[in-house]
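Appendix B, example 12.
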Amino acid sequence: MKALCVFCGSSLGFEPAHANFARKLGERLAVRGVRLVFGGGGIGLMGVLADSVLSNGGVATGVIPEFLKKPEIAHPNLTELIIVKDMHARKQRMYELADGFAVLPGGLGTLDEAIEVITWRQLHLHDKPIALLDNDGYWGWLPSAINRLVAGGFAPEKSKNLFTILHDADELIDIVDVGAGSE
């Protein structure tokens, strides 16, 4: 794994554990030589994650739509900042740059990004590993939602295996290093 796309919030959330987790993940990515690909923000968990990668000697590539490239939103010190037309182009470019995906806590945008790459995997558009980093139960509800889709006949049983829920940054790095999480 050379590049990991991380989806996460542009806010910090109410729990300090989220920022601590993002900081630890950034450190681990840098130490392991895995390039961070993310939404390009310098605020919220995105900013904490990117700052951690950079302060530990790592490489951080941000992908941000033109309308969000305001001085208070775009991270000013990235290794590379790619500016795209819109949110759809952002997701496509992050996908192209990544060898795998991780999802930290976030809001509707983070959920949208996560569901899209999970759906693309279901449609066999990729077989890159996807991990939801659940350090405090934040994503614990998602398997129940997928189970509901399966029970209702709207998703195949194998949909339950499209992503992994992990609780530790090192666990994530170890899995993506060996390419686990494939069907």
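The first helix runs from residue 16 to 32. The CA atoms of residues 54 and 146 lie 36 Å apart.
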